[in-house]
Amino acid sequence: MKTSYIKSIVAAAMVFCCTMGVSAQALHSSYFLDGMVQRHELNAAFGGEANFIALPGLSGFNLGVSTNFGLSNYVFKRGDQLVLGLSKQVSAAEFLGGLPANNQLDFQLDIPILSVGFRGMGGFNTITLKDRTFIGANIPSSLFAFLKQGADPATGVARYDIDNLTLQANNYMEFALGHSRKLEALEGFSYGVKLKFLVGVADAMASVEHIGIEMSNNRWMVETRGVGSVSSGVDFVYDEEGNLSNVSANNLHIGGYGFGADLGVAYTPAALPGLTVSAAVNDLGFISWQGVNTTQAEGQFEYTGFETITTDEATLNEQLNAVLDDVVELAHFTPGETTTISKQLQTTLNVGVEYAILNRKISFGILSSTRFGAPYTYAEGMAVVNFRPASWFQAAINGSVSTQGAAVGALLTFCPNGANIFFGCDYVSPNMKFSPQAIPLYGTRANLRTGIIITFGKKK
């Protein structure tokens, strides 16, 4: 079976995400910093202190990567050789004992093309155009247990249930119009709305709800339930028996259109001017993909088993290729129909509470952020200390706890007249250690952002 295209995508995703938390929007550290003009990306109610324009290249990009695994979970050194945990040189206890129940990776990249913010129409307005990419996966450790252990050596019998194996990737362009303003009827209350028009470029998904494997001495019976899809311009390739063997991207083009919205509110009560509570729902919407090619896995079949995945003489690359070959065959995907599919955006809920002292020179904030949607729900809580010692300089330090571990971060933003210069990283894991090849050995999170934005007009 030739699955070179699938191998390339999966291997690249695993290696890249091992080398680099979640959310490729503005840094969560910036949620409470007034001088950070891009914080409207976290809450549509937050207007800018000054008019601004973010130009391509200067405004940088936003990269968010999160994994709960690292290189040391899958690759082991034996003498002068690197082998996968599936090798016979690695015991099942050593390999499987170091794996999380669900191996999760999340990669998001936002590339701003143009962003403008200005006062007018009774409030603050934003116009943004950006390219957005997302890659995510949820791989249950029961899959690796099956690959590693197989049948009981004494009886030749075993049962494995592999549930919720999900791979997802998409890319789309976003054009957004935002407006925020104060509510005159209630002092201290502001709200904002951002409407988004979306153009889908590419989308791919494989969701295996269940693989049940019944192993005996004379045969293996496999039961599968799952679906897969690729947007128009990408095709599934099947072998002579009608089973999925490859994916080819021949003619990428616009694959769909959609709409989205960000909604936000913020309130500072007159009786407690140091207190601000806020909430926002971001990316509430969908993309409708046309001409989608689908594939499906459903039913029972007899499987002949694996051949090469534990061959110690094979190179690391050959072992990985053999594993991916057999996993694709195990899922047993067959042709489906061509159709239109509407997919929900990854909606995020942000809720923040801030209390400021010393005339807002220092403030303390708590931010809760929850992202919904495939391949899994992600939640975090962040505590932030904000410093505003001068009108031209602000900083924040934070600590966070999430479904993927604990981390710390910091942000520096310089905001003199004419510019907003910033650099920061939200998620730096305490156990971040690297191999000689600069690949993280353990689960890693990093949300990076740096850039320069031109500001103009009088600050509010």
Give a quick precis of the structure.
It is built from five helices and 21 strands. The protein is mainly beta and 460 residues long.
Topology overview:
Blueprint: H1 4-19, E1 51-54, E2 62-67, H2 71-74, E3 75-78, E4 81-84, H3 92-96, E5 102-120, E6 123-140, H4 141-149, E7 158-182, E8 189-215, E9 220-230, E10 234-238, E11 244-249, E12 256-267, E13 275-303, H5 316-331, E14 334-344, E15 348-357, E16 362-371, E17 378-390, E18 393-402, E19 405-414, E20 419-428, E21 445-456
What this model shows, in words?
The chain has 460 residues and is mainly beta. It has a single domain, classed as Porin (Beta Barrel). Helices cover 11% and strands 56% of the residues. It has helices spanning 4-19, 71-74, 92-96, 141-149, 316-331, and strands at residues 51-54, 62-67, 75-78, 81-84, 102-120, 123-140, 158-182, 189-215, 220-230, 234-238, 244-249, 256-267, 275-303, 334-344, 348-357, 362-371, 378-390, 393-402, 405-414, 419-428, 445-456. The strands form three sheets. The chain has a 17-stranded antiparallel sheet that branches. Strand 17 (378-390) and strand 18 (393-402) form a beta hairpin. The protein is elongated and about 80 Å long.
| Percentage of residues in strands | over 45%
Name of the CATH first level: Mainly Beta
**Overall shape:** elongated
Structural class: mainly beta
* Spans where pLDDT lies below 50 across 5 or more residues: 1-24
